[in-house]
Amino acid sequence: MARKNLIVGNWKMNATHLEAIQMTQKLHYRLDPKDFDRVDVGIAPPFTSLRSVQTVIEADHMRILLAAQNVHWEESGAFTGEIAPGMLEKLFVRYVIVGHSERRQLFGETDEVVNRKVKAVLAHGMTPIMCVGETLDEREAGLATERVGSQVPASLRGLTAEQVAGLVVAYEPIWAIGTGRTAAPEDAQEMVGFIRDTLRQGWGGAADETRILYGGSVNPGNIAALMAKKDIDGGLVGGASLDPDKFAAIVRYWV
Ligand code: PGA
């Protein structure tokens, strides 16, 4: 089955809700309706902007898909500062980034926490974008596949083949995030292919339907070479997604 390409902008902790509205409108203006037939386009603003952006998307019938950057796994309760999956579902959030390396490194998220979040997102009919990736030390020590090969099954433990087929996994080598240092397309393909093999070991043919993205200093100049690789189905874009011109150029990577 053909996997539709997916390019998601992760705005991280940037943009007020007013700026987010403008960024969304500018992005929409720069895209052609036909682009959306070729690639699913998502944006992940901070929580404080989700409602505003959702309203703009709905009012202007945009095909841009709303994504969130994080979620808690519980339905509700005494978890000060957290956001429940049901709250995102009600805002028509389609994708939720789970286990981004910044969450794993700066906020102590373990594979077990990521696994709970993945299940909570699925239970609410949304699609997790589950992130994995090795550090520079791990890569230099030849441990990249070992690291990613343990993150994938641990973060997806207990999922059905059907759930894995509908999932998005993002391979984001930590040394490439925000550094301007992109993985060579061959290296990215090698790791993404390895992730698909790992999925196949656990869930068989479902692995051929899972969309796997590359993330880490994606820009308009390197996206086409990455997209040309057979197992890479899209990109998770940080810094460059804050500029609607750059992000639109990444979405239209074939132009
Ligand atoms: P970057 O971030 O594109 O700024 O490297 C990617 C990410 O963290 O998803």
* Poorly predicted residue ranges: none
Per DSSP E runs of 2 or more residues, the count of β-strands stands at: 8
Helix content: 40-55%
- Give the overall shape: globular
The number of distinct helices, counting runs of at least 4 residues, comes to 12
Assembly annotation? single chain
Strand content: 15-25%
Q: What is the CA-atom radius of gyration, in angstroms?
A: 17 Å
Mean pLDDT: 97
**What's the order of the H and E elements?**
EHHEHEHEHHEHHHEHEHEH
Bound compounds? 2-phosphoglycolic acid
Category by helix and strand content: alpha/beta
**Largest beta-sheet characterization:** 8 strands, parallel, barrel
**What is the rounded distance between the termini?**
25 Å
State the strand order across the main sheet.
1-2-3-4-5-6-7-8
Report on the structure:
The chain is of the alpha/beta class and 255 residues long. The protein is built from twelve helices and eight strands. The protein has helices spanning 17-30, 35-38, 47-59, 85-90, 101-106, 111-123, 136-140, 144-155, 161-166, 185-203, 223-227, 244-251, and strands spanning 5-10, 39-44, 65-68, 95-98, 127-132, 168-171, 211-215, 234-237. Strands 1-2-3-4-5-6-7-8 form an eight-stranded parallel beta barrel, surrounded by five helices. Helix 4 (85-90) links the parallel strand 3 and strand 4. Helix 1 packs across helix 12 (244-251). The chain is globular, with a radius of gyration of 17 Å. It starts with a strand and ends with a helix. 45% of the residues are buried. It binds 2-phosphoglycolic acid (PGA). 2-phosphoglycolic acid is lined by residues 10, 172, 177-178, 215-218, 236-240.
